[in-house]
UniProtKB/TrEMBL annotation:
Record-level Gene Ontology MF annotations: N-acetylglucosaminyldiphosphoundecaprenol N-acetyl-beta-D-mannosaminyltransferase activity
Species whose genome carries this gene: Halanaerobium saccharolyticum subsp. saccharolyticum DSM 6643
Keyword Transmembrane helix: no
Catalytic reaction equation(s): UDP-N-acetyl-alpha-D-mannosamine + N-acetyl-alpha-D-glucosaminyl-di-trans,octa-cis-undecaprenyl diphosphate = N-acetyl-beta-D-mannosaminyl-(1->4)-N-acetyl-alpha-D-glucosaminyl di-trans,octa-cis-undecaprenyl diphosphate + UDP + H(+)
Protein name: N-acetylglucosaminyldiphosphoundecaprenol N-acetyl-beta-D-mannosaminyltransferase
Pfam families hit by this protein: Glyco_tran_WecG (PF03808)
InterPro entries for this protein: TagA_TarA, WecG_TagA_CpsF
Function: Catalyzes the conversion of GlcNAc-PP-undecaprenol into ManNAc-GlcNAc-PP-undecaprenol, the first committed lipid intermediate in the de novo synthesis of teichoic acid.
Enzyme kind, highest EC tier: transferase
Pathway this chain belongs to: Cell wall biogenesis; teichoic acid biosynthesis
Keyword Transferase: yes
EC number assigned by the record: 2.4.1.187
HAMAP family to which the protein is assigned, alphabetical: TagA_TarA
Assigned keywords, A-Z: Cell wall biogenesis/degradation, Glycosyltransferase, Teichoic acid biosynthesis, Transferase
Length: 244
């Protein structure tokens, strides 16, 4: 039985990392449908407050983890504290470890041409027995989509990781998940860039101190505009609690 909280009308699972991995294991073996896993952060939830379609997609997911300290802070403000942040990159890293020696097939879809290739190379080095059945970059048109769907459906994929950025990845899966024969599809944002070594994660101490956003800003100053979504998000959460 899922335990959910609502943050700006977006459902978030009250689950820690271990529980999230267990939930995905359950979804993989649910052969009745292809399941959806999303990883909303504060920017996504603020976006969903203005994008009804995105909000609907996020709320249709079979698992929604709290990707970002802002979401955890919001849960505390609302008096329903989440157990911990379950960042998308950390979640898929846990899945790689969990399934490194298992007969579980992965497919990677997303990022720029060449980036996902390097991500796969690095993963094969770190997890030689991980079953990566296929991959493709995310710069695709309608005809490409149909070919990729056919390829995925021919490979018995258990976990499809989609990293196209928000909201493209969510809307892509909303349009195509019923056509896909996969155990579960997970939205992973820019995780392929990190796996490929294009972007570095913050040192562990900064992650624990909730300063990963600042580290990303130092690496990519162009993200400054996007960072403004965090104070906007907190304002909306406070408004939802005290003014509505």
């Amino acid at each position: 039985m899922r335990k959910l909280i609502k943050i700006l009308d977006v459902n978030i699972d009250q689950a820690n990392m271990e529980q999230s991995v267990e939930r995905i294991k359950e979804l993989i073996f649910d052969h009745e449908k292809s399941s959806l896993v999303v990883t909303p952060n504060s920017e996504m939830i603020a976006m969903a407050a203005e994008d009804i379609e995105l909000a609907r997609i996020l709320n249709s997911a079979d698992l929604a983890t709290a990707d970002g300290i802002g979401v955890v802070i919001a849960s505390k403000i609302l008096g329903q504290p989440l157990p911990e942040r379950v960042a998308g990159f950390d979640l898929i890293s846990s899945l790689f470890k969990e399934f490194a020696e298992e007969d579980i097939n992965f497919y990677f879809l997303g990022s720029k041409p060449g980036i996902v290739d390097r991500a796969v190379e690095n993963l094969k080095r770190d997890y030689p027995n991980l079953n990566i059945a296929g991959y493709h970059h995310g710069y695709i048109d309608y005809d490409d989509q149909q070919k990729i769907i056919e390829e995925i459906n021919s490979k018995n994929i258990d976990l499809l990781l989609v990293g196209m950025g928000v909201p493209l990845q969510e809307k892509f899966l909303d349009s195509n998940l019923k056509k896909l024969k996969v155990g579960a599809a997970v939205t992973v944002g820019g995780s392929f860039d990190v796996l490929a070594g294009e972007v570095n994660r913050a040192p562990l101490w900064m992650q624990k101190a909730a300063l990963e956003w600042f580290y990303r800003l130092l690496q990519e100053p162009s993200r400054f505009g996007r960072m403004l979504s965090l104070p906007k998000f907190i304002f909306l959460v406070l408004k939802s609690k005290y003014l509505e």
